[in-house]
Amino acid sequence: xxxxxxxxxxxxxxxxxxxxxxxxxxxxxxxxxxxxxxxxxxxxxxxxxxxxxxxxxxxxxxxxxxxxxxxxxxxxxxxxxxxxxxxxxxxxxxxxxxxxxxxxxxxxxxxxxxxxxxxxxxxxxxxxxxxxxxxxxxxxxxxxxxxxxxxxxxxxxxxxxxxxxxxxxxxxxxxxxxxxxxxxxxxxxxxxxxxxxxxxxxxxxxxxxxxxxxxxxxxxxxxxxxxxxxxxxxxxxxxxxxxxxxxxxxxxxxxxxxxxxxxxxxxxxxxxxxxxxxxxxxxxxxxx
Length: 288
Description:
Layout: E1 16-23, E2 36-43, E3 46-50, E4 53-57, E5 62-65, E6 71-75, E7 88-95, H1 111-120, E8 124-126, H2 128-141, H3 146-162, E9 166-168, H4 180-196, H5 203-209, H6 214-225, H7 229-246, H8 252-258, H9 264-275, H10 279-285
Antiparallel strand pairs: 1-7, 2-5, 2-7, 3-4, 3-6, 5-8, 8-9
Helix pairs in contact: 1-3, 2-3, 5-6, 7-8
Protein name: AraC family transcriptional regulator
Domain HTH araC/xylS-type: 187-285
Keywords: DNA-binding, Transcription, Transcription regulation
């Protein structure tokens, strides 16, 4: 298991790092680091965890995560990684808050950038025309070096700071309460749920895995995930159901039972609670 806090991915001689990822799966380990991170998915899909946000990810997704915000991208194709069958591709950009100097963010000219960094502490995902513009800019950055690269990174940050085409991900007031031992334990829980969410999941079984009583585990999970374990499982199931409805064009009943729900009534209730729309409305939005 990787440590929650890793050494900096940025050499001391560099202001930032931008690189192309081409691997069987994206790093699935629940972790956080002091560097800010812009990430674009070029190929792959799965479930994305940022703070207390749980959402499906797909090709074209672009996110901006702030300093010490826990995150992981768990690919749907993880079981195939040993055979190197399913590859995931993306671009990641790392930079530190002070990459322009210790005092830059205190200047009047940097107010908009400082506000952007504050927003990124909840995680941001970009949509619409901004996402399309950023895709080209991010791909161009990995071809640049030196001052040209720094100026281009600033243009990316300028674009992000001026747009309204974004969603904040983690809940208001979310704070990272994790330690290294916690990230390993939470990753173990996440991995178990992702593998077994289509079946009935017993709280007692998960509590036993973490060497806790069910009551202690429920309290522990609520503190670190900012939601109940039951709510978390429902979010994973609804995320999978969304992919079945849109990508596999399944009917509502099939999506319900193939996602681990036992009744249509509970599925419809949880779907509306999590997505703010009914399954039928969700399909209609995608022209289905």
